[in-house]
Amino acid sequence: MTNLETYLALQLPVIDFRDLKPGTVKWDSVRSDARKAMEDYGCFEGLFDKVTAEVRKAVFEASEELFRLPLETKQRTVSDVKYRGYVGQNPTNPMYEGVGIDMAENSEKVNEFTQLLWPQGNISFSEAVLLFTKQVSELDFKIRRMVMESFGLEETYIEEHLKSTKCLMRMMKYRGVDDTEKKELGMEAHTDRNVLAIICQNNVKDGIEVKSKDGKHWIKANPSQDSSFLVIGGSILHVLLNGRVRAAVHRVMRMGTKTRYSAGLFSMPNTEDLIYAPEKMVDAEYPRLFKPFDFEAYYKFTSEGSGRRDLSAKVDAFTEKLWPQGNNSFSTTIQSYSKKLSELDITIRRMIMESFGLVKYIDEHLHSTNYLLRVMKYKGPDTEETKLGLNAHTDKNIVTILYQNHVEGLEVQTKDNNWIKVKPSQDSFIVMIGDSLHVCLWFLSTFLHNRVFALRTRTNSMVFNVTGTAKWSIVLSVSPCDDDRNRDEILTRIVLNSESRTYREFAK
Ligand SMILES: [Fe+2]
User: Fold this and answer.
1) How far is the CA of 173 from the centre of ligand 1 (A)?
2) Which residues form the Fe2OG dioxygenase domain (predicted)?
3) Considering its fold, how many domains does the chain have in total?
4) Which residue has better confidence, 463 or 101?
């Protein structure tokens, strides 16, 4: 589902970190505001003037200078590790370019990176990166310290934690759209895998949007002042604080014709450390949510393995197996088809659940499912005879949305057990309800709602091969998230949506 609507009535909290000293009344009140914002949004706008106007200007100038370099030069910094080095020229996201400088607090590392781009050196570039990192780190440390203090974590733990992270500094560029009226998705909805991200942008207003806690609205994260930074909680902070703060689900929109440059500091755990919530964060009310895990393995799993979180990465990986040289039209068609059809799926499931009075379960339910796209071909028999292609069955999933070519064959059983032919039509989809939705509706209605429904909520169907022509169908299958609580799946779930619960927990 890609809902591009933004809800203008909601705004992110704005918290003022200027002139703050630990131990003062103001510190305490800002600390509780920061914790509340992280609990409610996983995100807020922070005002901080220790990053000077000159440093901001220098960093955006450095950024423009870097992205103006020839492609071959920028590609010298390409890295195997995601978000390190240069990223760009991605056919599914051609309007985006970015670079990530690892350990940007370390002048040697920054100089090494600079020399890859400018072998003769570029002092103004490396100084801008180092100063930006140094000054923004101060805000990053302050916020992490405050949020951890607010949960009663001890000074020694906080100090150790702050020492256990490093800085990834990223510069990002999104080209504007051609038409001022247009609004396009620049980066799909996601949560960050780091501890905290602190981001500022050039004088372009729009860009990042953050999902509200109830998952219903997108809130614009527009900076209100020159000293504004957007502070975004990542999945590592979520895990360290045992789920007590949110990892904000956010996306980037492209609006207006101006190019949007942004610069951000991402605090990352040292790769050799295990990530887990300290005992202080665990009690009877808040049992441990996540097993200790290795950050490097988690990062690899979510950026390379089967846990790759973004649809385009998954589709690209699948396409590569069939066409190692790439097949852009296949991959973009599959992606846009799935995205558009998932909008229909969401609408249908929302309507069905609303009609049974289950409104308060809708969002959790929608977050607990995933999609499988299947392309199927039934070979037609050589003669005119009709053969059974697929026995009568119900689908095990939640919903199936099927599109078929002009060849007949699909039949569906009615309430009174008659079989009806489903006529193919150019502009319609067949929607079939699977066993999982049947069980889910029955359960919620009967036990949680104290109402008993005699539902016929699943579709019995079969397929015949009726002519000499092959029958093609493309199916979007919606299924519950896998409930096996092994580490990797939990981590994928953190990334996809920090608050999503599994299907069985939901139906418990
Ligand atoms: Fe992000």
Assistant:
1) 13
2) 163-269, 368-468
3) 2
4) 101
Query: Residue 475: which CATH number?
Result: 2.60.120.330
Residue 191 alpha carbon to ligand 1 centre in Å: 6
Q: Which of 334, 164, 184 is nearest to 253 (CA)?
A: 184
Pairwise pLDDT comparison (219 vs 499), residue with the higher score: 219
Classified as helix, coil or strand, 76 is helix
DSSP state of 380: P
In a domain, 293, yes or no: no
Report how far ligand 1's centroid is from the alpha carbon of 150 (Å): 25
42 CA from centroid of ligand 1 (Å)? 12
Cα separations (Å) of 306 from 72, 296, 317? 31, 15, 10
Task: Quote the domain boundaries for residue 115.
Answer: 13-268
In a domain, 148, yes or no: yes
Q: Determine the distance separating the centroid of ligand 1 and the alpha carbon of 506, expressed in angstroms.
A: 27
What pLDDT, in 10s, does the model give residues 196-227? 999 998 877 678 899 888 777 889 888 888 88
Asked, for residue 321, whether it belongs to a domain, the answer is: no
N-to-C CA span, the chain = 26
User: What is the distance in A from the centroid of ligand 1 to the CA of 233?
Assistant: 10
For ligand 1, the distance from its centroid to the CA atom of residue 251, given in whole angstroms, is 7
64 found inside a domain = yes
Sign of CA dihedral 200, 301, 281, 105: negative
